[in-house]
Design a protein that fits this description.
The complex is a heterodimer.
Chain A: E1 5-7, E2 10-13, E3 19-24, E4 31-38, E5 42-50, E6 53-56, E7 65-71, E8 74-79, E9 88-95, E10 110-111, E11 115-119
Parallel strand pairs in A: 2-11
Antiparallel strand pairs in A: 1-3, 3-8, 4-5, 4-9, 5-6, 7-8, 9-10, 9-11
Chain B: E1 4-5, E2 10-14, E3 19-25, E4 32-38, E5 45-51, E6 56-59, E7 62-67, E8 72-77, E9 86-93, E10 99-101, E11 105-110
Parallel strand pairs in B: 2-11
Antiparallel strand pairs in B: 1-3, 3-8, 4-5, 4-9, 6-7, 7-8, 9-10, 9-11
Chain lengths: ~120, ~110
């Protein structure tokens, strides 16, 4: 059974260019999360979706960042224009649907391998 | 505003000894806590969790302790093995599906 799939695994781009990161969640999972990992701040939640609807985007740094989930099997995170300070590893994670009490049993999230972004 | 803090960026432990990783949180609304383990070039993977109604949860060599009054949790690994060398992230949830992660602690197990 395939896990969370992310592409590309590595991206090197120049400042000012548009960057699009892609994610395919685990089939049947209803929640999808985008994280950014940096040395200083660890893993930061950028945005998450439930049933393809954005629920919380308070972690999105600024208007240069946008995320979409057009269907249950695909999501994108776009940075336009990119800046050197956006260099980080970006993770996508998915989680099973909320339980009867409004939350899953363990809140376990399954992470993809990440995209390492370098903006020169 | 870091709601979940792991104050030790790194920890080195001898093989066979106990590894203790610490995590502090500030938000009293957090009611579920998790530890994730991350190897290089891979995504984090779930390790163990604990609900706020408990103060201890054990799974094989891994035990998580929760001290709600101190807003502190710790992960104990005993005995430590070379394969435990990884970055460990503490995470907390206050409901819904949102997790707040700490900065991570790099654990190195020396032979």
């Amino acid at each position: 059974d395939a896990g969370v799939i992310q592409s590309p695994r590595h991206e090197v781009t120049e400042m000012g260019q548009e960057v699009t990161l892609r994610c395919k969640p685990i089939s049947g999972h209803n929640s999808l999360f985008w994280y950014r990992q940096t040395m200083m701040r660890g893993l930061e939640l950028l945005i998450y979706f439930n049933n393809n609807v954005p629920i919380d985007d308070s972690g999105m740094p600024e208007d240069r960042f946008s995320a979409k989930m057009p269907n249950a099997s695909f999501s994108t995170l776009k940075i336009q224009p990119s800046e050197p300070r956006d260099s980080a590893v970006y993770f996508c994670a998915s989680s099973p649907s909320l339980g009867l009490a409004g939350r899953s049993s363990y809140n376990e999230q399954f992470f993809g391998p990440g995209t390492r972004l370098t903006v020169l | 505003d870091q709601q979940v803090k792991q104050n030790s960026p790194s920890l080195s432990v001898q093989e066979g000894r106990i590894s203790i990783l610490n995590c502090d949180y500030t938000n009293s609304m957090f009611d579920y806590f998790l530890w994730y383990k991350k190897y290089p070039a891979e995504g984090p993977t779930f390790l163990i969790s604990i609900s706020s109604i408990k103060d201890k949860n054990e799974d094989g060599r891994f035990t998580v302790f929760l001290n709600k009054s101190a807003k502190h949790l710790s992960l104990h690994i005993v005995p430590s093995q070379p394969g435990d060398s990884a970055v460990y992230f503490c995470a907390a949830s206050g409901g819904a599906q949102k997790l707040v992660f700490g900065q991570g602690t790099r654990l190195t197990i020396n032979p």
